[in-house]
Amino acid sequence: LPWRQWTRTVAAGYLKAWRRAPRNTVLLVAMGALSTVSFVLLVSGATTSLATVIIWIGLPALAATLAAAHGFAALTRHLLAWQGTQIPPPAPIHTNPLTGAVQASPVRWIRREWTSPQRWRELLHGIVVFPLGIAGFLAAICTWTLGLGEMLAFVWVPIAQSFDPGSVTTLGGGIVHGFDGAGVGASTAWGSSTGTASIGFWAYVVDFVIGAGLLALTPLILDGFAKLTGTLGKALLGAAPFTLARRVRELETSRMRAAHAESAALRSMERDLHDGPQQVLIRVGMDLAAAERRLDRGEVDSARDLIGQAKARNTEALTDLRALARGIAPPTLTERGLVTAMSVAAASSTVPVTLVGNVGANDRFTGPTETAIYFAFCELLANVVKHSEASAVEVRLERTPTTVELTVHDDGRGGARILPSRGLAGLADRVAGVDGTLEVIPHTEGEGSEVRVMVPNR
């Protein structure tokens, strides 16, 4: 029946609230303390720094206040994550998203703190969370203490009565009056006694019922305050909508760049097929036709020569096709890994290649990462052979927890640049398709060229 289903749903939700009650209690108590500290420090810091901006002292002071707000926000995110409310942290504003290296000088650090919308949202959260934090703190403390206190009034009231000659008041209406100087007996609201001071039996019953009802509501009250705290945190501490929109635009741009690079690669492959194996195979067909005609005329030796030439050209065409196939999906890369594939490619180079780094032969990465690094290596090595007039190439392959970094440094004449619609620009577009970057490291003339490719380590 519908009402039975509704009852089961309500009961299941209520039990879940009880299971969340301990964590909600810790969260609300901790947020009460944290919100008080953040409110005092952030309000005083913001007002002082804004008041001293005119004499420039306020600029670094406000940047420090915003940084403090970021610290309080990080603590809040950790608390909410422990309680069960996940808030993805925003992207860092002072580090390279690929390498994690700090990019900001002190002046730039201050400027980025000032201009980061996320920092201002975190400052706002550190201030407006104060009343909610105090309310949640009081709710967590009062519901448990009042509920348990009323239920256990029959235990603690006699004990308090024996130590305190004053009066004891409970929510159930029991009022205990101590003895006065003349030794007059005590009176109660729910009963009376002579010679002793005690709460009547029915007052204890009422206290127990009130305490049980308050405890029954406690998980719901705590759950409500915890959800309000989580909702406020999600609204102000998560990645801002405009940040997500900017990231979407960056991904759309990188996807378009990758699509253009892939289209250019397909056109290049089509030209290679047309100018290489296709022409050779046409010549093979012509040689075989000529050999057939000579056999008809009885010119066996001449026909044998043409057939031999056709076989040689057929071998040449197969070699070209294998090279194109390796360019599409090299089997060494997929079967034996990135380092082995790079070693095989380096062995066929006319310029001596030294391969160094902290990546071992058995280390593997995801398919897109390995493919991007391998093709970048092959393209850069081909550029060195064609244009640099180098006598040696050093290739460094490094991995960090966040990136895979390829550096190709030759000792040629230098001059490598990223120009529109040229080789390095197309390679940069292809690397951007996997959220990577390509940069040319500047060197003085005669020190060769150095190109670095960084791809996320996923």
Quickly list its features.
458 residues, alpha+beta, two-stranded antiparallel sheet, 5-stranded mixed beta sheet
Output the number of helix runs. Answer: 13
Straight-line distance between termini: 51 Å
What is the number of strand segments? 7
Shape: elongated
* Helix fraction bin: 55-70%
Mean pLDDT across the residues is: 78
Strand order of the largest sheet: 3-4-5-7-6
Gyration radius, in Å: 39 Å
Structural class: alpha+beta
Roughly what fraction of the amino acids lie in strands?
A: 5-15%
What kind of sheet is the major sheet? Answer: 5 strands, mixed
- Low-confidence parts: 97-101, 174-198
In N-to-C order, the SSE pattern is HHHHHEEHHHHHHEHEEHEE
3D structure, described in words:
With 458 residues, this protein is α+β, with helices and mostly antiparallel strands. The chain has helices spanning 2-51, 58-83, 106-115, 117-151, 153-163, 201-237, 241-275, 277-296, 300-328, 331-336, 338-347, 367-388, 423-432, and strands at residues 168-169, 175-176, 353-357, 393-399, 403-410, 437-441, 450-456. A 5-stranded mixed sheet has the order 3-4-5-7-6. The protein starts with a helix and ends with a strand.
